[in-house]
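In response to the reviewer comment on reproducibility (Comment 2.3), we provide here a single inverse folding case reported in full, input and output, so that an independent group could reproduce the run without further information from us. The structure tokens appear first.
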């Protein structure tokens, strides 16, 4: 299983997949330029470690139904908490999570972010693997409308934090550099996968960037894995205000020609009727089947890992679509 994303959305997907098995690879966006990640990126030139740290913690913590393995070299829950712990005070360390500093230090010692992640996972006894989408830090650049008196005029906004906090409507994003190098290990994992998930998460900064790295997009097109898109439960303030679920799909489709087998949406977010019909049409543009089920946590705006895991397990139990490879060629045409 390979999960693509970043931040809290990827954490939710990884927690769901942990209930299905341990052979999981997380592929994480590396364009964050805010907070601790932004500081370490600017000062040390490392890829931003924050989302990578969150993925490590998600794979470190066992599902609730599991006990920590007796032969584990560390107490998983304790170390997951330590990775997220932020230093207090007002000095140079204030606000830095322990895990961010560990990854930055390991990267300097080993000279390679993939080796640093592998070493941290091994030391903590975490199952699976965490990989960066690219081995160099990337920048997000967006065309944002509704910032000028004429709503037809767009303004170019650069930087993930700036894009997320600028009022207006994001229409298109780009990665800088445009020919960003993919992580070779991530490309290999996608090629060998039985299942690839994309989303949920910040749509323009954690989801769409995964189809903007040329080599990774080609790997997604050519893999024989079942590809599942998990759609957000609601619009996100800053990135997707007033976006319908249908709009989420059409914006992703506008950024890349890619076949997807299943699109998962929460039943509570899309009632039966005209709106669901539009959503089915948008999913069909990916060659996908719309899967409507209860995947939200009660009285919350986050996905329930148990429910999401059960839906994905059911899709895999149904078998793999037989014409996936040909379908990708059809989409590109």
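Designed residues, in position order:
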């Amino acid at each position: 299983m390979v999960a693509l994303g970043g931040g809290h959305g990827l954490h939710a997907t990884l927690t769901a997949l942990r209930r299905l098995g341990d052979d999981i690879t997380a592929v994480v966006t590396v364009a964050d330029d805010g907070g601790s990640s932004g500081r370490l990126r600017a000062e040390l030139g490392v890829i931003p470690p924050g989302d990578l740290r969150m993925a490590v913690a998600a794979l470190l913590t066992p599902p609730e139904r599991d006990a920590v393995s007796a032969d584990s070299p560390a107490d998983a829950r304790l170390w997951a908490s330590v990775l997220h712990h932020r230093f207090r005070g007002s000095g140079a360390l204030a606000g830095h999570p322990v895990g961010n500093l560990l990854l930055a230090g390991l990267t300097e010692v080993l000279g390679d972010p993939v080796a640093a992640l592998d070493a941290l996972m091994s030391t903590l006894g975490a199952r699976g693997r965490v990989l960066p989408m690219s081995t160099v830090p990337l920048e997000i650049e967006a065309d944002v409308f509704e910032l000028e008196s004429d709503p037809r005029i767009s303004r170019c906004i650069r930087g993930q934090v700036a894009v997320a906090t600028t009022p207006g409507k994001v229409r298109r994003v780009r990665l800088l550099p445009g020919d960003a190098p993919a992580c070779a290990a991530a490309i290999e994992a996608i090629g060998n996968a039985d299942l690839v998930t994309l989303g949920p998460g910040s749509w323009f900064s954690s989801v769409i960037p995964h189809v903007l790295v040329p080599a990774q997009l080609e790997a997604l097109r050519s893999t024989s894995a079942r590809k599942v898109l998990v759609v957000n439960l609601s619009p996100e303030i800053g990135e997707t205000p007033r976006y319908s679920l249908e709009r989420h799909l059409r914006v992703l489709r506008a950024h890349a020609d890619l076949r997807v087998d299943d699109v998962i949406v929460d039943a509570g977010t899309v009632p039966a009727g005209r709106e669901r019909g539009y959503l089915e049409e948008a999913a069909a543009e990916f060659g996908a089947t719309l899967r409507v089920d209860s995947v939200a946590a009660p009285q919350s705006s986050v996905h329930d890992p148990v429910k999401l895991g059960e839906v994905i397990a059911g899709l895999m139990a149904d078998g793999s679509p037989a014409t996936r490879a040909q379908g990708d060629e059809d989409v590109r045409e």
